[in-house]
User: Fold these one by one.
Assistant:
Number 1:
Amino acid sequence: MKEGAAKTVVTIGLLVAALAFYFVLLGQRGIELIRDGGGAAIGLGIGVLILPVLGVWIVYATLRAGFQHQYLSRRIAEESLELDVTDLPRRPSGRLDRAAADALFQQVKSEYEADPDNWRRWYRLARAYDYAGDRGRARETMRRAVELERAEREGTAGS
C-alpha cells in the first residue's frame, strides 16, 4: 500500500472509530431519556436513538460506495482506460480549466453514447462529470457504472 493510501485508510479508520464512539454515546443518552419515563422524554429518547441508526447506515453506505469506486478505479487502471488529464490546463486552485473540462466531457460523452451498456464508459463519464464540477451527476453515473460492472462480473462468472 502506498504511503498516501495508508494515511487515507488510517484517517478513515479514525473517523469511523470516532463516529462509533459518538453513536454509542447518543444511544446511551436516548436510553436514559426513555428510562426517565415522561412523555416528552420518551419522545426525545426515541428521536435520539434514531440518530445513531441513521448514522451507521450513512457510514456503511459511504464506505461501501467508496470501496466499489476504488475497485472500478483499479480495474480501469489495469485496462489503461483512466482519463489522462496531466496535460490539461488548470486553474490556480488546481482544478481543470473550465473549457478543458468541458472539452474532455464532450469527448467522453461521445464515447459513452457509442457504447452505453459498457460500465467502462459510465465510469469514464462519471470521472468527466467530476472534472467538470458536477458532483451530483458524477455520483449518479458512478452508481450506474458499479451496477453494470457487477452485472458483467456476475454474468461471466456463471458462464
Number 2:
Amino acid sequence: MSPAPAPIEQHTQARLILGTHRSALLRVTLRYCCEDPLAVRMVFPAEYAVDASDTDPYDPHGPHDPNDPFDTAPADPSAPDIEWVFARQLLSVGLDRAAGEGDVRIRPAYGMRTMVELRSPEGVALLQFARADLRRFLWRSHLAVPEGQELRHLDCDRALAQLLA
C-alpha cells in the first residue's frame, strides 16, 4: 500500500469584517486531504479563538473585546488551531452563487471577493477572501481528486473505524 499523498495546503489572507468601517487581516490555511475527499478545511491560528474569559463578567481584568483591535488577548502557545471543516462542493458552489444553510455559508461579493460566514454558538464571523485565492485552492484540490471521483478515494472502513473509536 502506498503512503497517502501530502495534504494540499495554501496560505492566504482573509479580512475579518468587524463592522461597517472596521476589519482585520487574518492569516488562514486552506487544507485538502485526499483521505477525506469530500471536505475542505479552513485553519485559523489559535490566537483568533474566543476564550471563555472573553465573556466572563467576573474576570478581574474585564472581558476581552475581539472587535477592538487594540484589545488583544494573550496568546496561549499550547492552544490548538481553530479548524472549520465543510464540504468541498459548498466552496465550489459558493464561488459563483450563495450556498449553505448551516454553520458555513459562502457567497460571491463585489470586486472579485468571496464572503465566508462561519456561525457558532459563540457568534458569527464574516470573512472576505480574494476569489482567485479560493479558486486556485479548489483547482489544486481537483487536480488531486477530480470532482465526481471523491468516492473512489474514500476509505469507508477507515472512516467507520475512526467514527467508532
Number 3:
Amino acid sequence: MASLGQDKIVAVIGAGTMGAGVAQVAAAAGHPVLLFDVAEGAALKGIQGIAVGLDKLVVKGKMPAQERDALVARLTPASTLSELAPAALVIEAIVEKLEVKQSLFKQLEAIVAQDTIIASNTSSLSITAIGSALQHPERLVGMHFFNPAPIMKLVEVISGLATDKAIAHTVLDTANAWGKQAVHARSTPGFIVNRVARPFYAEGLRVLQEGGADVATIDALMRESGGFRMGPFELMDLIGHDVNYAVTCSVHAAYYYDPRFTPSLIQKELVDAGFLGRKTGRGFYDYSANAHKLEPQTAPTLTPSFESVTLIGDAPFAPTLVDLLTKAGISIEREASEDGAELILLAGDAIMSLTDGRTATQIAEEEGERDIVLFDLALDYAKATRIGIAAADQATPQALQDATAFWQALGKQVSILNDIAGLCVMRTVCMLANEGADAVNQQVCNAQAVDIAMQGGVNYPKGPLAWAQSLGVGRVVNVLDQLATGYGEDRYRTSPLLLRHALSGRALV
C-alpha cells in the first residue's frame, strides 16, 4: 500500500502542544485536517495557536503568506467525535493512560469507516495492550511523533501483535510523504528512542555518583568532545526529572527489572525534592535570576616541558593527532607496535592511551608503568574543543601535567577527571551502541532504524551503531567487557549481536 493521498482527511484527537503540532504537520502535507479535543474551545484555540506560530514564520520570511493561509484553511475544529467519521486516518495525542486510550478507540470504532486507520501517538504504552480492547486491533498502529512535531523529523511507527503489516506500511509511507524520517519497530517497552537513550542519562548519573566529575564538566565533555547537542544533565533538566525518571522506571519495570535500566537514586532525590528542572527553576542547575552559573572544571594552561612526542602503534584517529601536533610545531617520532597494541602517546613523563574500560590505576598496576594517563573518546579529535583525562593513582604530578600540556598544545581545554572506568564519552557511547544492538538482536527493529531514530529523534551527532562501526566493534566489546569485569554487574553485559560482529568482522550497518 502507498501513502494516503492528499485528498484523504486526517483527524487528530487532542489539541495540546503535541496534537496541534501533528495537525499542523498533516495540514502542511496537504491533507484536510479535523482537530478535536474534549475541552470546549480547545480545538479552535489549538488552530489559532498554529496560526500565530505560522505568522512568525511569515514575518521572518521563512514562509509565504499564501502558504500560511492555505495551511490554516485546511484545519477545521470538530466539536464532537462523530464529526471525525470521514477521516481516513485518526491520530490520538491524549493523556498517557491505557484505559483512557482504550475507551477512546472503542468509541472511534463505532464512528469511523471499517478501512479507517487509527493511530496512537503514545510514547510508552503498548500498542498491543491498547489494541486488546478493540474489535479490530489490526488497524491500530503507533505513530509516535517527537516534540515539537513540526520540527522534529522522526516518527516511530509501531506495530502491535495484531497490527496488519499493510497498515503499518501505509502509515510508514505516509509519515515519509509528510517529510518525516519514519522508522518501524515492534511494540516493546520504550520502542526505539526511549529504550536506546537510557544509557545517555544513566552513565552520566553513574559518573556523577562515583565522583568521576561534576555536573557541568560531564555536560561540557559530552558536548565539546562527544559532539552531543546537550549534556545529560542539561537535557534531563529540560525534559523534566519527573518525566525522565518516570520513563526510566517504566522501562526498568517493563523489562522485568533488568539492571541495565536501573534508575538513579540521585535523580530520585531531585524528584522527591520537587527540583524538576527548568520548569521549577531548579534541577541539576539553578535557573533563578541570580543563580551562580556552574562552570566545567578546566585545567590551567601549562607550558609543555617536552619538545617532541612519540606515537607507538596506530589507531584510526592517529593521523588527526599527527596533523594537530604538526600544526602546533611539536616534532613527532613514530614507532611500530610489536604486538599490535593500541596507540600509545609518550609526552614528557606521561604515557597516554585511549580509555579501554579499565581505570588508569588498574592499567598501571597490570603493566608495571606508574605514569599512565588515559584520555576520553571524541567524536572528532580535530573539532573537539575539550578532552577529558584521568591519571593513575600511582602517576607522578609531572605525568599529569605533561598530559595536560599535550592536549592544550593541540588547542583543547582539558578537564581532569577522577580515575573512573571508561571515563565519560567512551562509556556512554559504548553503552548506547550496546543497547541499540540489543534492540536489533531482539527483533525490535533493524540497525538502520536505530541510527535514524537516535539522530532524528534526539539529535545524536552520529547513530550509535555507525559510531560503534567507526570506533571498531571489537573495541566497543572490549570496553563493555572491562566495565562488566570491573563493576561485576550484569548492567554492562555485551549484546550477543555486538559480539558476533566483533568476531566475524561483519559491518553492523
Number 4:
Amino acid sequence: MMKKLIVICNILFVLAGCTKQTIIDTGICSPYHDCSIMDYLRADDYHWGWTVKMIEYAGLTDLFEGKVDSLPEITFLGIPSMAVERLVYDYEVDSVSDLSRNKCRRILLQHVAKGKILKDDVGFRNIEYYINDPEQDGGTDITMLYGNVVRFYREKSDYLDIPDAGPVTLNLWSLEEDQQIPMSSADIQPLNGVVHALNYNYVIY
C-alpha cells in the first residue's frame, strides 16, 4: 500500500511540474533595415569589417549608399569579411589598401547587380539537369556590373520524407568559374537594395 502511495505521489509531482511551460520569446527576425546597404555593413564589423574597407578603398561607397543616380537599388552578393581578410593574407600584405585598387573594384563589381533581385524573383532549377548543364532551362541568369554572369536559382527540399515540403533556398552558380557560390542568408533588405550574404568559406578569385 505504501509503495502504491509513493508511486501515485511521484506521478502527481511530475504532472504538476509539467503544467507550467517556460516560453522564451526570441522575437521575429526581420529582413528589413532602415538604412543603406553601406550603413548595414558598417553596423556589423565582425561580419563585414574587411568588406567595408574594400568598398571604401575601391571608391564605391556612393554605390553602396544608393547615391548613384543610375543605380538607386542594387543586389549585393555579400562578400564576408573573412573572405576579404583571407585574400589579404594570401597576397602576403597587411591590409586591403596594399592590394591593387582596380582589383578591389573588379572583385566588388563582380558581386553587384543592378536592381533588387529577391529570392522569389528567380526561377527554380530544372531538376532534370545539373545546374551547369547546357540543357538547363531553369533559374535566372544575372549579369553583374563587371559583366560576369551568375545563375540565380531556387531549389525545393524535402521535409520528413515529404517531397518538396521543406524550405525553398536561393542558390548561386558562377558561370565564369563554373562552380557554386556558397550562400549563407538571402533577402537582407536595406533601403537601397538587397544583400544575399555569402558563406564564410567563400573564396575570392
